[in-house]
């Protein structure tokens, strides 16, 4: 067993053998909204431009561990992006079972396609497709239950529609039938309106509809989570990250041991020097003579 595998075995208990689900995608694709929905959490939400998720969040709920990741490509700085990729590999280094890869229905640009390719060609490799489920977010059409029901005519028509789009057609087949259409619209805060006012009543009705659509999404995704059991994912980049952390931990332990040795030596030398100084003081010499100190 190499160092990386040893660390993996050591840390498997941290996952409690629960199913591990990672949310992945570009900034503003709806990862945190879905994380909140499925894990019963309340993490702050960002927008399509800037992410509010600045670190990784973990939540175990109903024997499933959910991981909300930082948003990718929300900056033009290439070094920032590479750092996020490294942090991502660090957080998932012990493996995961399912990736929920989120893309916006209305904004699948060339940048989205490039990020998608980077994740599955370079960071995780194509092997990760077997563990992946594609979530097409910001789906606002009324037939959200039908299009997420396998083998329904509405679902087939919608998938055919997406395959007519060159960008979507290039990625849909990788996920086979593991594709869901998600509405993540947020409820309006009714506290902003007077109880019983026209706007209050309007937004109350809208919130009820949003809640109902979220429950439909929750139902379909939980069924998928319950019945989808791929082999836990691992790849060379993750093994490399485990090995780096293992070596770093070893070095840190060695440095701590060296620091203790240096501290002991310094303390011993300080004690000796202090005693030598005392020897040259008249009052000290008197005590040495009386008590026979040497």
TrEMBL record:
<feature type="coiled-coil region">
    <location>
        <begin position="241"/>
        <end position="268"/>
    </location>
</feature>
<protein>
    <recommendedName>
        <fullName>G domain-containing protein</fullName>
    </recommendedName>
</protein>
<feature type="domain" description="G">
    <location>
        <begin position="21"/>
        <end position="112"/>
    </location>
</feature>
<dbReference type="GO" id="GO:0005525">
    <property type="term" value="F:GTP binding"/>
</dbReference>
<dbReference type="InterPro" id="IPR027417">
    <property type="entry name" value="P-loop_NTPase"/>
</dbReference>
<keyword id="KW-0175">Coiled coil</keyword>
<dbReference type="Pfam" id="PF01926">
    <property type="entry name" value="MMR_HSR1"/>
</dbReference>
<dbReference type="InterPro" id="IPR006073">
    <property type="entry name" value="GTP-bd"/>
</dbReference>
């Amino acid at each position: 067993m190499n160092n990386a595998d040893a660390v993996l075995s050591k840390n498997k208990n941290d996952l409690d053998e629960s199913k591990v689900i990672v949310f992945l995608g570009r900034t503003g694709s709806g990862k945190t909204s879905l994380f909140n929905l499925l894990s019963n959490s309340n993490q702050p939400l960002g927008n399509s431009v800037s992410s509010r998720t600045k670190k990784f969040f973990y939540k175990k709920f109903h024997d499933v561990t959910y991981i909300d990741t930082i948003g990718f490509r929300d900056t033009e700085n290439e070094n920032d992006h590479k750092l996020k990729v490294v942090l991502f590999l660090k957080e998932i280094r012990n493996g995961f079972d399912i990736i929920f890869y989120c893309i916006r229905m209305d904004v699948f640009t060339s940048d989205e396609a490039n990020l998608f390719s980077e994740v599955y060609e370079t960071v995780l490799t194509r092997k990760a497709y077997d563990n992946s489920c594609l979530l097409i977010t910001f789906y606002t059409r009324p037939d959200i239950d039908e299009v997420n029901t396998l083998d329904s005519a509405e679902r087939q028509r919608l998938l055919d529609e997406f395959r007519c789009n060159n960008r979507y057609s290039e990625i849909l087949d990788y996920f086979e039938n593991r594709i869901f259409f998600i509405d993540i619209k947020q409820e309006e805060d009714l506290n902003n309106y007077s109880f019983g006012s026209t706007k209050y009543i309007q937004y109350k009705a809208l919130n009820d509809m949003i809640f109902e659509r979220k429950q439909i999404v929750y139902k379909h995704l939980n069924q998928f989570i319950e019945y989808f059991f791929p082999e836990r994912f691992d790849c060379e980049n993750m093994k490399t990250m485990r090995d780096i952390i293992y070596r770093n931990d070893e070095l840190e332990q060695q440095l701590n041991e060296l620091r203790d040795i240096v501290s002991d030596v310094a303390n011993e030398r300080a004690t000796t020097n202090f005693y030598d100084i005392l020897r040259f003081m008249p009052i000290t010499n008197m005590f040495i003579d009386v008590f026979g100190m040497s």
